[in-house]
């Protein structure tokens, strides 16, 4: 039987979601807790893999077991897991339903603090030394919808079979001294959101004009885009499925 897990985590202490040698990951902690409680080796497949230091407010993974799972399992898992990983719910799905390949969209948020704030040092990019023009940044956002090949924002030397992504949402909002970038697409390339944010900030500071974003995208060269924004300001906030 196949089960889906909905969970969240603070990525500060992890080298991303996916298991890797000699580095602590969210997947490793999750599988260790599941295997301990269910008394069998459990392997999970996540909806995606976040980079080192990136957070997830809402993410899914699936796993298979012959067991009928108790409604108490989420509570028991939470007692085994470290404080920075939280299970929201576990539920049955069709046996061929896939956490990664059946996702219809993913939505991220990126936070920037426009003032020096000791309470958001680890949860938002502190960008208070230079002002940002949010109107120009939103003007640049509109250009993203003109394209589907985002090679310029892709991490170099990855195993991507395609760099084609369909953009659904891209916008900046300001709430007091906080900027929030919301971006949603059918899929994202590794490092893509942070590369877009870093380039948008160059637009906001006047280093680039909004229309320069067309040249950046059409170059299909990572060196044409801006430096990646820090990981700790990025959150995966939703993954969509047709359950």
TrEMBL record:
Cited function: Formation of pseudouridine at positions 38, 39 and 40 in the anticodon stem and loop of transfer RNAs.
Record family assignment: Belongs to the tRNA pseudouridine synthase TruA family.
InterPro entries the record matches: PsdUridine_synth_cat_dom_sf, PsdUridine_synth_TruA, PsdUridine_synth_TruA_a/b_dom, PsdUridine_synth_TruA_C, TruA/RsuA/RluB/E/F_N
HAMAP family given in the database record: TruA
Gene Ontology annotations of biological process type: tRNA pseudouridine synthesis
A Pfam family of this chain: PseudoU_synth_1
A molecular-function term among this protein's GO annotations: tRNA pseudouridine(38-40) synthase activity
Stated name of the protein: tRNA pseudouridine synthase A
């Amino acid at each position: 039987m196949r089960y889906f897990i909905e969970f969240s985590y603070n990525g500060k202490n992890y080298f991303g979601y996916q298991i890797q040698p000699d580095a602590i990951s969210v997947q490793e902690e999750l599988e260790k807790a599941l295997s301990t409680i269910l008394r069998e080796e459990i392997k999970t497949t996540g909806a995606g893999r976040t980079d080192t230091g990136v957070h997830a407010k809402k993410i899914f993974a699936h796993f298979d077991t012959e067991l009928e799972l108790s409604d108490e399992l989420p509570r028991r898992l939470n007692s085994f897991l470290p404080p920075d990983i939280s299970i929201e719910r576990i539920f049955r799905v069709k046996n061929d339903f896939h956490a990664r390949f059946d996702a219809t969209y993913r939505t991220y948020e990126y936070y920037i603090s426009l003032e020096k704030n000791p309470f958001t040092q680890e949860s938002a990019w502190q960008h208070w030394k230079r002002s940002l023009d949010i109107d120009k940044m939103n003007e640049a956002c509109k250009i993203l919808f003109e394209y589907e090949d985002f090679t310029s924002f892709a991490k170099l030397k990855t195993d991507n079979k395609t760099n084609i992504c369909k953009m659904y949402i891209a916008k900046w909002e300001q709430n007091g001294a906080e900027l929030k970038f919301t971006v949603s697409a059918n899929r994202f390339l590794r490092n893509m959101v942070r590369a877009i944010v870093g380039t948008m900030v160059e637009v906001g500071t006047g280093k680039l004009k909004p229309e320069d974003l067309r040249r950046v995208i059409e170059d299909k060269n990572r060196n044409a885009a801006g430096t990646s924004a820090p990981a700790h300001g990025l959150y995966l906030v939703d993954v969509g499925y047709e359950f």
